[in-house]
Design goal:
This protein has 410 residues and is α+β, with helices and mostly antiparallel strands. The protein folds into 3 domains: 8-56 and 68-121 and 347-397; 126-211 and 338-345; 214-333, Elongation Factor Tu (Ef-tu), domain 3 (Beta Barrel), CATH 2.40.30.240. It has 7 helices and 21 strands. Helix 1 packs across helix 3 (96-120).
């Protein structure tokens, strides 16, 4: 006798439940923040959090005001995942729990992997960078040093998260007592929890990103003085173009998106006090770059923008002409795993239902959980009498605030 629980609604609810159990990175970071969104087609726009200077030691504000100049971050809903299964007569004789375990859970796990991979692929937009390339961080001190860096540059202290590759996770778990979550039915997030150390809740994930350094050869220098910008110009992209030269001539991929570098004489500052941290500011390259002929020029799209004054100041000074550039990501052409150390507000994930047309014989149920929205459609093939179900998911994710994350290299 056929099992009457195989309805699109029941299956969609089960799929969402199982999928969210499999999320580690996406399960901890990001928030829909529907009230902050303005929608335009397949893109939603999120307002960037404001930052102010204020007036010191003078209660009279009659001649003082700060303009509210909001930046926005575009989150494009451009990621989909779909699958289809045929439910045979023997499948329908199984209990729903058995069918869920054999069919739905593996599918949910695969969908979760796609979500996790899409979010960790955002790593290249985080410009704060610490660690020694080629040396996996495996001590509480390494984490604490990264935490000190984050505190120096004004990141919130509470709620910090760290996501590590399995090999780094193994080293850290050997250095600390791992958390012990009781019960048999642990979620992936609970199983991934290594423990609290260095000011972070630490998690292990197979999807920690790997960065391959560009060619990164030559004697690179800043090409031209006065290459700063202002918040009004950079408020939406949080980036700018930097003219450089001295790279090896005519080389494709001289730097890759995600490569980081420092500039002599340009230090990070605390966003509140505007005082130098005595740490050279690290910049990330947002797009692959090639060098030209003769003097090895390369135009780099970099983050953060070089803002040397005002409420949104990012650095202690604009770089001088011919200031030395030092690549920090590692040896050219070499791959390094990256741990991601974040404030949860650094990244957002937005999931919305697909627009699935209805027609005779097609039944669709759309269900939303805490993180994802999934549609399950059911129909019967009139030629073969096969009972089919398809699963569809639409989402987008983006770095909302790159100031609130740090990459710890291995």
């Amino acid at each position: 006798m056929a099992n009457g629980f195989y309805t699109p609604t029941a299956v969609a609810k089960e799929f969402v439940h199982l999928l969210e159990q499999e999320l580690v990175f996406a399960g901890m970071v990001g928030s829909d923040m529907s009230g902050e969104f303005k929608k335009n087609g397949d893109t939603v726009y999120v307002r960037r959090q404001m930052q102010y200077l204020g007036q010191d030691n003078n209660l009279d504000l009659s001649s003082y005001t700060e303009d509210v100049t909001e930046g926005t971050v575009a989150v494009t809903m451009d990621k989909t995942w779909s699958n289809k299964v045929s439910i045979g007569a023997t499948d329908r004789t199984m209990s729903f729990d058995r069918w869920s375990e054999m069919v739905v859970r593996p599918m949910a796990r695969r969908a979760a992997e796609k979500i996790e991979t899409s979010i960790t692929a955002l790593y290249s937009k985080f410009y704060h960078f610490d660690g020694t390339p080629g040396t996996p961080p495996a001590t509480v001190l390494a984490l604490a040093n990264a935490g000190a860096y984050m505190t120096d540059v004004g990141m919130p202290v509470g709620g910090r998260l760290a996501f590590h590759s399995p090999i780094v996770g193994a080293g850290i778990s050997a250095a600390i007592a791992g958390s012990n979550v009781q019960g048999r039915n642990k979620s992936a997030l609970e199983k991934a929890m290594i423990g609290t150390a260095g000011g972070f809740d630490n998690y292990e994930t197979a999807f920690a990103p790997t960065h391959t350094v560009g060619v990164a050869t030559g004697t690179p220098l800043v090409n031209g003085a006065s290459q700063g910008t202002d918040y009004a110009t950079a408020k939406n992209t949080w980036s700018q173009t930097l003219a450089t030269d001295g790279w090896t001539n005519s080389t494709a991929g001289i730097l890759k998106a995600g490569d980081t570098f420092t500039i002599a004489g340009v230090y990070s500052i605390h966003p509140g006090t505007k005082v130098s941290t005595a740490r050279l500011q690290t910049f990330t390259v947002l797009e692959d770059a090639a060098s030209g002929a003769s003097t090895g020029p390369a135009s780099l799209t970099v983050s953060p923008p070089i803002i040397s004054s005002g409420a949104w100041q990012t650095v202690s000074a604009v770089p001088a002409n011919d200031a030395v550039i030092t690549v920090k990501t590692g040896t050219g052409g070499t791959a390094y795993r990256q741990s991601l150390l974040l404030d949860p507000a650094a990244v957002t994930m937005v999931s919305r239902p697909l627009d699935i047309p209805g027609n005779a014989g097609l039944k669709t149920s759309t269900q939303s959980g805490n993180k994802v929205t999934v549609s399950v459609s059911e129909w019967t093939d009139g030629n073969t009498l096969a009972h089919n179900m398809r699963f569809d998911m639409l989402w987008g994710n983006e770095v909302l605030d790159p100031r609130r994350g740090l990459r710890l290299t291995s």
